[in-house]
C-alpha cells in the first residue's frame, strides 16, 4: 500500500473507531452472524434490518437451527423486508452449510462466492471481518466515497465502472486490518458522505477530496439511467366460502414473490372494470371451480405497490362462493402464511376489520 493509500485507510479507520454505531453484528466475528447481517442489509437500511436480524438470531441461534426450519417459516420471519429471493437463498445456503459442510463456513473469499446468494460484496465482507482476508468490499456507500474523494465520473453501474472501483478499493485496503477498513468505509458513506447533504464542512478528507475542491459533490457518483419501469395490473379475487374459509395459494414459478401466498390473481395489461373482469377467461375458469355468486370491488382507489423494476396497480375483489372446496383454508389461518407486503396489508385491513363487525 502506497503512502497516500495508507494515509486514506488509517484516517478512515481512526474515524470509524470513534464514530461507529454499536450494532450487534459488530460485536462478533462468527461467520453465521456476519453472513446473516450482510444478507439482511442487502438493499435494506440498518434501522429497518436490525429488528429482523435480532429476530433471526433469537429464533435460529445456530446455522443448524435455520437449516432445520421450513422455507415457509423463514419466509414468514422475513416478511416485510422485500426481495424475497434473499430469504430463499439464505435458507438454501444454511441447509448446504449445515448438511454438506458440517456447519462450517468456507474461510476464503473464493470459497464464499460459491455459496448461493453470496456475491462479491458479501464474500469480501465475511472474508475480511471473520477471516482477516484482504478482500475489499464495494457497495453503494463505497462507490459514493471513492467517486467523490477521487472525482471519478465513470458510471458505477457500468461493467467498466464495477471493475475500476473494485480495483481501486483493493489497492486502498489495509492488509493488516481489512475487517475494520471495510466496515469503516461503508460506515463513513452511510453516516458522513451521505447521498444528500454530506457533511463536507467537518469531513476528515475535506483538504484532499477532489469533488469538494471542484464542486462535483452533488453529481457524484454517476449512474447510468435505470431500466424503464413496467406497469402491471393485478386483480386479486378474495373468495369467501359459506363455512368461513378463503382460497390462499402459494405463488409458483420464478419471478417476484416466489413461494409466497396470495389470493387467486388475474393479471391484465391495463386497468379493467367489473364487466371486463367478469367476461375474462380467467374469471370464468375461477368461477366454475369455486361457484362464485357475487363480486364486489373492495378498493375504489387502486393500491400502487412499487418494486425496483415494476409498479403494481392492485385491486381486491370480494367474491362469495357456494362451493365447499378442499383447497380452502380457514380465514384465521392465512395470517400464519408468508405473504407480500401488499397482501399482508390487505388481510390485516379487511379481515381484522370484518372480525370487529
The DSSP helix count reads: 15
Count of all domains? 2
Q: Low-confidence spans: pLDDT under 50, at least 5 residues?
A: none
Give the averaged pLDDT, no decimals. 92
Describe the model.
The structure is a single chain. The protein has two domains: 3-219, Hypothetical protein, domain 2 (Endonuclease III, domain 1), CATH 1.10.340; 230-356, Nucleoside Triphosphate Pyrophosphohydrolase (Alpha-Beta Complex), CATH 3.90.79.10. The protein contains 15 helices and nine strands. It has helices at 3-19, 31-41, 46-59, 63-68, 71-78, 85-100, 109-112, 120-131, 140-150, 159-172, 178-191, 210-214, 274-279, 281-290, 341-356, and strands at 230-241, 245-246, 249-250, 261-262, 265-268, 292-297, 303-306, 310-321, 329-330. The strands form three sheets. Strands 1, 5, 6, 7 and 8 form a five-stranded mixed β-sheet that branches. A two-stranded antiparallel ribbon has the order 2-9. Strands 3-4 form a two-stranded antiparallel ribbon. Helix 1 (3-19) crosses helix 11 (178-191), helix 2 packs antiparallel against helix 8 (120-131) and helix 9 (140-150) packs across helix 11.
